[in-house]
Amino acid sequence: MAGEIPILQIGDCLLVSIQVDMHDRLAMALQDDLTVRIVESRARGVMIDISALEIVDSFIGRMLNNIAGMSRVLDAVTVVVGMRPAVAITLVELGLTLTGVRTALNVDKGLAMIRRLIDSEGDESARRA
Amino acid sequence: MRQSVHTIIPNLIEQHYQRLLNGWLACQKRDGMIGGQISEDQLAEQARRFLAEVRQGVAGGHFDDISGPEWDSTRSLLDTVATERAVQGFSPSETAIFVFSLKEPLFELLREELKDVETLARETWAASLLIDKLGMHTIEVFQKGREEVIRRQQEELLELSTPVIQLWDSILALPLIGTLDSARTQTVMESLLERIVSSGAEVAIIDITGVPTVDTLVAQHLIKTVSAARLMGADCIISGIRPQIAQTIVHLGLELDVVSKATMADAFALALRRVGKAVLNRAQPKPNGE
Amino acid sequence: MPVEHSETMPVTSSDDVVRVRQAVRTHAVKAGFSLVDQTKIITAASEIARNTVDYGGGGTLLIELLRESARRGLKLTFSDQGPGIPDLERALTDGYTTGNGLGLGLSGAKRLCNEFAVKSTPGSGTIVTLARWR
Predict the structure, then answer these.
(1) B231/B204 Cα distance (integer angstroms)
(2) pLDDT for residue C18
(3) Across the interface, do C108 and A94 touch by the CB < 8 Å criterion?
(4) pLDDT-based confidence at A124, cuts 50/70/90?
(5) What is the pLDDT of residues A17-27, one digit of tens each?
(6) CB neighbourhood size of B33 (10 A)
(7) What are the start-end ranges of the H helices in chain A?
(8) What's the mean pLDDT when you consider all of chain A?
(9) Cα distance between residue B223 and residue B232, in whole Å
């Protein structure tokens, strides 16, 4: 349980919806708790919904990158959904790149993307076998 | 340089006011000022007010400088006249004639009153100088008025010319038209991003067929918009790149890190593939009407 | 440029960083900024506020709402008594480098503002001034 940020499980995906203006402790707690939950639930996908965030600064950006990096190591894909236009424009100006973070417009598309990524990965391994 | 000039002009205007006015209006009529968008009455009214202002102005004694306080209300009147003319679509000459045609009746009066050639020359020069200054002020204000009209029209044109169109589920098109200035481009791009969110589009086609030139600033805005769309989870295709624009882009050393197509049709075809759709031919109807 | 309104607040903890964002938002709305401009100045403020807390040992923020005839602006002054910024020029010109909070904070924030100035001497603290115009 990441303090005030609930982590939901939908099938083999974890869904995090960030509703509050996070202070640093909360962000760190989220990263830690997600790591634990991914392992516990054997999740293959992590979806972070930032549609309620009006501000994404470099700290939050780094947090998203960290989550993506850490879940990749744990064999899960990360998709960030719901980025607001003003936020996107500001991030571009800020020069921040979300490395290893895929993005989708909303939760539906995000889940579909995770599905595609996980499935194609399965094909990949099957082909190699 | 503001010095009081001793001249008979203030007296002349005072004494022969009506005659001056009539003569002036006659000149304007002759030079084609009336009959267009300004009625004779309107023109007469403006002329009356202007002459009254000039009378006040010259009474102050400063002929060579119309920027002083005694000319404030005169300039203000000219500003109104010039701006009105600008909005109504008159030419600069037509507007200036309003002031310049005052010379003829005024010079006539001077010739009648002054027999000494020296004095006549000096007074005529003073009158000419004054009217020239007033005329030039009028033209300058007119010019500003025209620029304002043009600016407003440009804005309105851009308003009309940047709709965001939904071509298909998940595919948007933004046809850009006309010269884009920095501020306008930003607003347009922002509304594209908003539409992407509200329509859930996965691909946005930005068509620049109607953009005559792409300079560094516009290109940078395009690139930033594409990057922002990607961050949000949508992708962009630029279409309508004309050969000259392609050359400018290379010449400016711009890295357009986005797929670009020559035509909107090509871009649409690509967009369809990207969202997993295909266009098929309908089955041909059988000859016996089955 | 005449100051229409001003407010001072402490910037010493990560909770303060959240408060800074909220305060800057309130003032940006008062100044009539568009949504995108609001987002830019608040994000820039968030970057600098973080630096003030993490590297400056805590400090203060002065928010000034400026107005000159039709033009309105927001000016933010962050000051701290910390160790100062070593190699200021590099910190300002570096692009985003992962892990280096300072590098991004300054150069990124600069891009988001109309005016940006840093005065920092090792040993006597740092003053960062940002401004955004409507």
Answers:
(1) 13
(2) 93
(3) yes
(4) low
(5) 998 888 888 88
(6) 20
(7) 24-41, 58-73, 85-94, 107-128
(8) 89
(9) 14
Q: Residue A68: its pLDDT value, please?
A: 94
pLDDT of residue C94 exceeding 50: yes
pLDDT in tens, B21-65: 888 888 887 876 655 667 778 888 888 888 888 888 887 777 777
**In this complex, do A105 and B232 lie within 8 Å of one another by their Cβ atoms?**
yes
Cβ <8 Å between C108 and A95:
yes
Give B233-247 as a 3 state SS string.
Answer: CCEEEEECCCHHHHH
Range of the domain at A23: 7-128
CATH of B9-155, one of 1.10.10, 1.10.1060, 1.10.490, 3.30.110: 1.10.490
Can you tell me the ipTM of this complex? 0.89
Tally of domains in chain C:
1
Torsion of CA B55, B3, B76, B22, to 10 degrees: 30
Of C15, C40, C95, the CB nearest to A90: C40
Sheet holding C126-133, edge to edge: C3-11, C59-68, C71-80, C126-133, C115-120
Residue B69 is encoded by which pair of tokens? 């306080």
What are the domain boundaries of chain B?
Answer: 9-155, 165-274
Rounded to an integer, what distance in angstroms lies between the CA atom of residue B115 and that of residue C106? 80
Please name the residue of chain A whose CA is at the shortest distance from the CA of residue C22: A21
| Whole-angstrom distance, CA of residue B115 vs CA of residue B92 | 36
Domain that holds residue C84: 3-133
Q: Which CATH superfamily is domain B165-274 in?
A: STAS domain (3.30.750.24)
User: What's chain C's average pLDDT?
Assistant: 86
Phi, psi of B252 (to 5 degrees): -80, -5
Is A85–B200 a contact, with Cβ atoms under 8 angstroms apart? no
Residue A2 domain flag: no
Please give the angle made by the CA atoms of B82, B73 and B125, to the nearest 5 degrees: 80
Model pLDDT, residue B90: 84
d(CA B49, CA B37): 19
What distance in Å separates residue C99's CA from the closest CA in chain A? 8
Q: Is residue A1 part of a domain?
A: no
Q: What is the CATH number of the domain that holds A102?
A: 3.30.750.24
pTM, whole model, 2 decimals? 0.70
Residues of chain B falling short of pLDDT 50: 1-4
Contact C21 A55 (CB under 8 A): yes
Optimal mutation site among A94, A105, A109, interface B, most CBs of chain B within 10 A: A105
